[in-house]
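retry 2 of 3: previous attempt timed out while embedding calcium ion. Reduced batch size to 1 and resubmitted. Inputs unchanged:
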Amino acid sequence: MTDGTARIAVIEDEVSIAQAIAARLRNEGYTVDVAHDGPTGVALVQRTSPDLVVLDLMLPGFDGLEVCRQIQREHWVPVLMLTARDSEADLIIGLSVGADDYMTKPFSARELVARVSAMLRRVARLQQPPSSTSEIVRVGCIELDPATRKVVVGGEAVHLTPTEFELVTYLGTRPGRVVTREELLENVWGYDFPAGGRTVDSHVRSVRRKLGADIVRTVHGVGYAIDESAVAQ
Ligand code: CA
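retry 2 succeeded.
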């Protein structure tokens, strides 16, 4: 799958917004299908197996979170969630329903295209088979297996989304180093976008809920680190 040939599902009940998004993405060479409510959106995704889903949070039928849950059941697909408020980011990412990124309305078509393109590049990278030489990363009480993308904390397997796994691996392979939000955006998300720091913060909160609050250290005003001494409490 190269960037321009990807298939994208747009699930958005405001018809004018859905049409504008679809037109812009088609203009970039993507194949785009559109649905205007939750149940139709789920059916669309099941029928077309898109490479990426642009999903509005507030939808008739059932909302974007429920759509996310249902479409992630069979296999992971990256979701760019559209929200009315910035404060919804934590809700979306924290529920670990698989939303990888979010945009707050109103947004520019240019930014949407840039985000979609970055997400597709990242997915292509995630889908490459891990190098056979990749070794298990051990940092503090965490074990990360790049070959299976599994994480074990204090002997217990913990489920992380692909994005969360990449985030923890990026920090864990640089133990003790404070990594800025910008560096994380560039390397984990593949695109440093305005206000992207919130996406990083929300994912870190989600990782802490799963792995333990003390695993990822915050360095205020700078960024995040995972230390050799990291221990789940
Ligand atoms: Ca809506």
